[in-house]
From TrEMBL:
It comes from Aliiruegeria lutimaris. It holds the Pfam family TPR_16. This is Flp pilus assembly protein TadD, contains TPR repeats. Residues 1-19 form the signal peptide. The keyword Ribosomal protein does not apply. Keywords: Signal, TPR repeat. TPR repeats lie at residues 172-205. SUPFAM superfamilies: TPR-like.
Amino acid sequence: MRQITLVTMCLGAAMALSACEKAGESEVDRAIQSVNVIDESNLSDLMLTAADANEAVAYYKRTVAEHPERIDLQRNLAKSLVRAKHNTEATAAWAKVVAMPEATNSDSVDYADALIRAGDWDKAEATLDKVPPTHETFKRYKLEAMVADGNKEWKKADSFYEIAVGLTTKPATTLNNWGYSKLTRGDYREAERLFGEALQYEPDLYTAKNNLVLARGAQRNYQLPIVEMTQTERAQLLHTAGLTAIKHGDTSIGRSLLQDAIDTHPQHFEAAVHSLNALDGV
């Protein structure tokens, strides 16, 4: 009897030990899974921001194939496609995201952005129209301004640009876009002001420098603005000013500016040489 009791106790202890081991293994598995999720999240963020754009696309395509139900991975695939400039594929990816139950208003705005990049302005406008007016973000209003610009709805465009600029601490590119809109409308003085304001926020924005020269040139003011510029940029801006002068019939001024551009450039400035030769009939 004592032997049976002893055997029973030993079996009970063994079973308890086995149960403890299984419970321990389960805890370890859960801990490993938690670490994997954290590592995966960190890798995902890294791939989206730091990796080569095409490498990121390949990574997200693999992970989406493994977890198609996860909207965060679908969203990052769409973002990486935009970053890699695969615009047509990006619109399809964003369409899939916005169709998912967890999709947000921000996803719809990003979908509209992808559509604009792909040149589908009508669908972009229709997508933005579905976003409730309570969703007030910089990106939403920037896109609204661009759509209004494309439709030549100038009052709406100006209103949306103004709101967008007020919703960001980095408005340089939006101010540049707004200035270019004014330039195309023939409001050269206001365009000049907006380009100058853009450069106050981002002094290295060459597009705004070039546009500023165009806006001044449209007023037949061919003197370069007082802004930060490298020697190469100065040569390029002189070239822009020279071509603008020639366009307005100020040929002698244009010829002089083109020669200055050639003399200023630290290397051979083929574009300016070609322009000058074409002017002189060489």
